[in-house]
Amino acid sequence: MNRTTLLQRDRITVNEFCCTAEPGDKTFVEQFANHSVSYVRKGSFGCHCRGRFHELVAGSFLIGHPGDEYTCTHDHVVGDECLSFFLDPELVETIGDRAAVWQVGSVPPLSELMVLGELAQTAADGNSDVGLDEVGHLLVSRLVELVSDRKAKPLTAGLRDRRRAVEAALWIDANSHRAIDLDDTADQAGLSTFHFLRLFSAVLGVTPHQYLVRSRLRHAARRLADDDSPITDIAYDVGFGDLSNFVRSFHRAAGASPLKFRQASRGDRKIFQERLALQ
Length: 279
What we know:
The chain has 279 residues and is an alpha+beta fold. It is 47% helix and 21% strand. It has 12 helices and 9 strands. Strands 1, 2, 3, 4, 5, 6, 7, 8 and 9 form a 9-stranded antiparallel beta sheet that branches. A hairpin with a 2-residue loop joins strand 4 and strand 5 (52-57). Helix 3 runs antiparallel to helix 4 (132-147), helix 5 packs across helix 6 (182-189) and helix 5 (159-174) packs across helix 7 (193-204).
């Protein structure tokens, strides 16, 4: 596990983690001293904490609670990359420190969070005028808001089924720019559409179509922050067949139009001020 500190402030520290573990490698246990939020930007891994199994794929979030133990595994794929935010207790208290929120273990890929995760990654890469700590505050605040209304689902699928769901999610993410449907993905998993839909939703907390749309939004957010391609080109490149649908979906996820999101990534902080004022 390679760990690089990207930012260290009084209230927030941001680290980059790159893991190259393979299926069959010895599992390892982590214990966090601070509350943390880790955005899975690439790859996949499993995690066992507080008696529950979690499968995290690109776009998911691992939620760390001080003192709890997290056993991480790579039963399905090789390695992962995460962008992790470690929070000072005073900041957590300000944003919301309910134990139920911070002990959920993980959060599935949610479009409202993934677009902010990609903006944070762009800021971490030095390709945005927005401060990494600014995005971190907004991301954590939005996550707490969303998790407060969510209830954890018990996971009853075995290792083989969890592997199938994770591999399907990786396939969806890699092919999200194409026109794919439930039948395509179920065929990849070697399951009937009915069983696959139930399995995927139980393991990852979202339906295959939800993950497909959110993968497209995640890729679009990165493109909007990273390059100057026309918004129409980006919409079609990432898999949206209709520009108006892309604009509506992106606005619903980010709370801002694609243009405003791009402007925010270039230093216009109005969007952040407005969103934080609503918390």
